[in-house]
Specification:
The structure is a single chain. The protein has one domain. About 20% of the residues are buried. Strand 1 and strand 2 form a beta hairpin. A four-stranded antiparallel β-sheet has the order 2-1-4-3. Helix 2 runs antiparallel to helix 3. It is of the alpha+beta class. This is DUF1840 domain-containing protein. It holds the Pfam family DUF1840. InterPro entries: DUF1840 (IPR014991).
Length: about 110
């Protein structure tokens, strides 16, 4: 199922429900049928999401050496897309909404 985040200050952001649930959880919300991140909550939400991205990047850097690229007897592994790439449109929306004192809503 697709979830559409709306904000009067930014273009809509559409994502799959499981990613939306994960990102909304990071910022301290629950993904219900309807929801809102108020302009008062945006600073904390941005801080939490940015911290999660930094942690993800650090963990990915630590594990990069574990991909045995080109070694005999090891299959080629694709490096999965990181949180930074998946979260960028949502993080950008949070930042624009904060700058414009706008709320972000979904499910309406």
């Amino acid at each position: 199922m697709l979830i559409t985040f709306k904000c009067r200050a930014a273009p809509d952001v559409v994502m799959l429900e499981n990613l939306a649930q994960y990102l909304v959880g990071i910022v301290g919300k629950r993904l219900g049928q309807r929801g809102v991140i108020t302009h008062d909550e945006l600073g904390d939400a941005i801080t939490k999401l940015e911290a999660a991205i930094v942690t993800d990047k650090q963990e990915r850097a630590e594990h990069e050496g574990h991909f045995h690229e080109g070694e005999e007897g090891h299959d080629r592994h694709e490096v999965p897309i990181g949180l930074a790439q998946r979260a960028y449109p949502f993080l950008d929306m949070l930042r624009v909404a904060k700058k414009e004192n706008a709320d972000i809503v979904w499910g309406i």
